[in-house]
Design brief:
The protein is an alpha/beta fold. A seven-stranded mixed sheet has the order 5-4-1-6-8-7-9, with helices on both faces. Strands 2-3 form a two-stranded antiparallel ribbon.
Length: about 190
């Protein structure tokens, strides 16, 4: 398993997107919803910590609870919950690494080699974006982006655009195939049942 000690991995930061309104979870703060005895964000922190040099958390509620995990907590810099890309932009503006791994807070079973494989693909292809996929679909919310794309993203959001996939379509990119089970989203209360 590739770890943060592997060549280049200290130059990767990660952001856990926990800043949404949790509409499908009854308005709950999804990152703090309990799953098998631990808040969802703890599962994601545990799988990412060995992979990257720094982890930040994008959150707009319960900032103190997220800060208790010992990570920087970044509220959106744009008003009115403009979506996950606002959290990505805040992270791109805050980290000093060359690369940013982006994952949602409701995917507790992410691959242990997610950052390593996405970085390898982006570097091999010479592109600023690598997105996870499985046999049936692209997982647009799990991706690695070069931090030199922060101005491009700021411009995209300034135009009133919000869709992650449409922003990604404007960048040169590659995809990396993983097992579908790794990206199971726990979006609704029923998804939390064993």
């Amino acid at each position: 398993m590739a770890t943060a000690d592997a060549p280049g991995m200290q130059n990767v930061a990660a952001v856990i997107l926990a800043g949404g309104q949790g509409r499908r979870m009854g308005g709950a703060d999804k990152g703090l919803v309990d799953y098998q005895g631990r808040p969802l964000v703890e599962w994601v922190l545990a799988v990412l910590a060995p992979q990257v040099g720094e982890i930040v958390i994008s959150a707009n509620r319960n900032l103190e609870r997220y800060a208790a995990y010992g990570r920087r907590v970044l509220p959106d810099t744009l008003p009115d919950y403009p979506g996950p890309l606002a959290g990505v932009l805040a992270a791109l503006q805050a980290v000093t690494t060359d690369w940013l791994l982006v994952v949602p807070c409701d995917t507790p079973h992410l691959p242990a080699d997610l950052a390593f494989r996405l970085l390898g693909a982006a570097q091999l292809e010479g592109v600023p974006l690598a997105v996870a996929e499985d046999d049936t679909r692209i997982h647009h919310s799990c991706f690695l982006v070069h931090t030199d794309q922060r101005e491009h993203l700021a411009g995209y959001l300034a135009r009133g655009e919000r869709a992650v996939r449409h922003w990604q379509a404007e960048l040169s990119s590659t995809t990396v195939r993983f097992d579908a089970a790794a990206f199971a989203n726990l979006n609704r209360p029923d998804d939390l049942q064993p």
